Task: inverse folding
């Protein structure tokens, strides 16, 4: 079994807050990530898939096809968006990196199965210091 | 003369648009950077100062002091902010990286002169592909 | 289960040698890493923790809290130190990256359990070419 | 058990194509990677080995020795080569990154066992966006 | 005056050799860069332009437009090519990074003047250790 | 005129202090950089040279030769050393990055002139946040 990873990226705004809580309570939980007028990041996304190498082509999968799939279903919806307001598949989700990786996994997993391979992990680098990875 | 650079960073939301123009006109100029609900970046800021090395200490300047100056006057105001709404020294400025470097230069230049050295350049990396530098 | 990684860094001096051996014997084992007057590195430390996402906050853990824990118990003791001479929790340990990862694991593991989550791995990048990871 | 990784690199030309197929059929499978006159990459290679820390030296293995092994058996054959034409151990293999990781694994695995430790993974970064890893 | 840099990249094969010289003479000058069957690199290209900020838009230039210009006139011709054989604007040029930066400068300079701004420098990173920059 | 840069690196220990001052006075000037038992860094060194491209070879200079010169005269003396104690050409110099760049410039400048080209700058990255450059 071979593991192949494609890196993509998107720039987005977000804000971490729980609607039922006051500004002060949100600040106690989320700190400046709950600032009222949003902030943002250059997110880096690593999608790792796995399976057997095709003995004819030497590919697990043509990475161009994987890249197109990730761009059309994930990156085009997230890039230059507001993660709290603009993204249907993130609706009612607090856009922490944890929740982002899970939502992206749930969205990509069946589509990658359709390609005849399996999704192994979704990794998001929110800043160079903060990284989240999800294996389903 | 020696050149010393300090790297700092901040995460912020912004949107590029001209108030007098329609959404469509703004999109023609700024593309998805004018999306209505903001987006954001991990900005990297390089501040380069210059002057003579102090023969006693071997320093141009203690970089800790320079870092504190940049943090208190620039980073603390920009980090986890909305560059269009939250930052007094960016008021009425379209927050392009070009305008950001100039605004940061104007703010830091006299303060760095007070330290007995000179500001050489302000560089901002908005994404790994887009970089702006200003030398006054 | 979600995996969250925090990156920290520290600058330190060290020397690799076995006290009972001669300079020449040490050089045969450790090469220039056994040079008498120390050398040093910018160490990069990755701490990965794992557990379930809190459905209320969308966090595994507030990374600020994890960062404070790593800084107060690890980084503040190692940064700008001599790993052979200055660090109580490294006493009598040859400060290879292998031993460093294990010592940091042993120190952090119970403290991270106290936060209600689990330590997954400690990774140290000594130079861009040499990396060590420990999973307990 | 500890995991130690050594990073090496090599620059090489290659071309992805299946001899029995026409130029057009190859282009449909491999895109511009099948261009007739070759192209090339700066490949980054990560070799991860695992085992127990030697209680006397604090090393899993002297990384200098591992580096020499990788250089003499892998890097010296691949660096500044044409992966399709010049490398005996890649003969009759389409030099995709998938096949490269497997061929390097097969070549290194017994040699690393001879050192008393075990090979854990071979990772190749072909471009910053395309990464392949193999665990045997 | 403001300086704006766009980063692009391309993967290509090349070989350094002088036609009139023997293999041995070429090897004495170019080392393994003259290997007969080509080798290749992931080239990183930085194009820096300069001029005045447009007071209406806050842009020196829309970087998307600059990127399209670089891609259509430079990257599309170089990416996945053989620099010795495939590129009309490199004909009869030994494809060292020095010659590459000059050839790209000569090709881009008038086109960038047409945009109402000026080309400042062309920088090529052939490997992380070898960098060439040209200012006209 | 073309500018060519070679990147090298070295790992070293150092300590910043003025012999005539007390520990406390040194701490007030240098902070933890004056800690008694040394600390260290992975230093990155960029040497930029300039001149005309050789029309026959397309090189400013064979970078292999430049690398050998830098390694034999600079890196081999600094790597795995104590900058305060071990390096003859740093004797009686407080090993700040400012003083390091100047000492390396003074040492390399005449040797590079002997190669028929000119030294343009010496840049040292002490940590990713602290960078010093000297142009003579």
Result:
């Amino acid at each position: 079994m071979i593991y192949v990873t494609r890196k993509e990226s998107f720039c987005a705004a977000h804000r971490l807050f729980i609607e039922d809580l006051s500004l002060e309570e949100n600040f106690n939980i989320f700190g400046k990530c709950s600032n009222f007028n949003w902030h943002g990041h250059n997110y880096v996304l690593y999608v790792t898939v796995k399976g057997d190498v095709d003995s004819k082509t030497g590919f697990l999968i043509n990475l161009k096809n994987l890249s197109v799939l990730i761009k059309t279903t994930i990156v085009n919806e997230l890039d230059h968006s507001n993660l709290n307001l603009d993204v249907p598949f993130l609706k009612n989700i607090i856009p922490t990196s944890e929740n982002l990786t899970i939502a992206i996994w749930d969205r990509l997993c069946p589509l990658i199965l359709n390609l005849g391979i399996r999704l192994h992990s979704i990794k998001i680098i929110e800043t160079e210091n903060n990284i989240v990875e999800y294996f389903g």
In short: The helical segments of chain B are 23-30, 63-78, 97-113.
